[in-house]
Write a structure and sequence with these properties.
Elements lengths: L1 H12 L4 H10 L3 H9 L8 H13 L3 H12 L6 H14 L5 E6 L7 E4 L2 E3 L3 E4 L3 E9 L2 E10 L4 E6 L14 E2 L8 H42 L7 H31 L7 E6 L2 E6 L1
Parallel strand pairs: 1-7
Antiparallel strand pairs: 1-4, 2-3, 2-5, 5-6, 7-10, 8-9, 9-10
Length: 289
């Protein structure tokens, strides 16, 4: 009730600080109220900051197609400065891969049907960008519903609906559900694992080198103090040199292993999510799972 009353007052009064109010609401997570506040600003008075916030709120609310149009309008506006254009272009680059796709096709046996997607006429085959959520594909023949399928799409998902509505005179085609094997896993994960092992080993060798160097320094300091107080025991120089050598060797090992690890991490290919394609009852699912 509080949010509804706030939106109502914003729409009626359109206060001069509607932009600040919208920013506060957006930061607090009230996207509906924030969008209403930004849109209460007359279109001719909206600056590019307000327009970017409007597009951002629509994107977060799942109204991705509207957000895409708004960002594109900002990006191509000749009045927009370079910083605004770059911001809109960056947001578009992030948004577009997240927009779901609905692919609708007919089986070879399906004839003489009129197909609609969410109530709008569709000419098949069709690939349609849609907002996340529930969508309905209906095929009618002679005024009768011959096929209906409801599918729910999430972000970054493509779903294929195969309209299977053969005419009564056509023989029915029965197909078994098919699940295609996922592609083999990438070697990127293994390479990154060995890369981090190399870096960790390098750090361990570095710690050992530091410890050996400090210990040799301690032995050398004690040796010098004793020599200053009396005759020097030359035999005590051997462990000092030994620990110095250990520290140098450990430093070399640290550099080599850490270098190999960093190289493996930098050259590891980017991992792609496993794509699984399946079909069941005329619905094809393509996406990352």
């Amino acid at each position: 009730m509080h949010t509804a009353a706030l939106i109502f007052s914003i729409l009626l009064l359109a206060p001069p600080d509607a932009y600040k109010t919208g920013v506060k609401l957006e930061n607090s997570g009230d996207l509906v109220g924030a969008l209403a506040s930004f849109e209460s600003i007359p279109a001719e008075k909206r600056d590019f900051n307000a327009k970017l916030h409007i597009a951002s709120c629509k994107k977060k609310l799942g109204r991705m197609l509207e957000a895409e149009r708004d960002y594109e309008a900002i990006r191509t506006d000749p009045k927009a400065d370079s910083a605004t254009v770059d911001t809109a272009a960056s947001d578009l680059e992030d948004l577009r891969p997240r927009i779901p796709r609905l692919v609708v096709k007919l089986t070879p046996a399906t004839r003489d049907v009129a197909v609609t997607v969410d109530g709008g006429e569709a000419k098949l085959p069709l690939t349609l960008s849609v907002n996340p959520g529930l969508h309905t594909v209906v095929a009618t023949r002679a005024g009768e519903v011959a096929f209906k399928r409801e599918v729910t799409l999430s972000e970054s998902t493509t779903i294929e609906v195969l309209v299977d509505a053969p005419s009564p005179s056509a023989p029915a085609v029965v197909t078994a559900p098919v699940v295609r094997d996922a592609p083999p896993p990438s070697s990127s994960s293994s390479q990154r694992t060995w890369g981090w092992i190399g870096v960790g080993t390098g750090v361990a060798f570095g710690g050992a080198a530091l410890g050996a160097w400090l210990y040799s320094g301690s032995l050398a300091s004690s040796y010098r103090e004793d020599c200053a107080a009396g005759p020097c025991d030359k035999g005590r120089e051997t462990p000092i040199r030994t620990w110095e050598t250990v520290s140098f060797v450990a430093v070399g090992a640290a550099v080599v292993t850490a270098g190999v690890g960093v190289t493996l991490l930098l050259t590891a290919p980017k991992e792609n999510p496993v794509a699984v394609t399946a079909t069941h009852n005329g619905v094809y699912l393509v996406g990352s799972f």
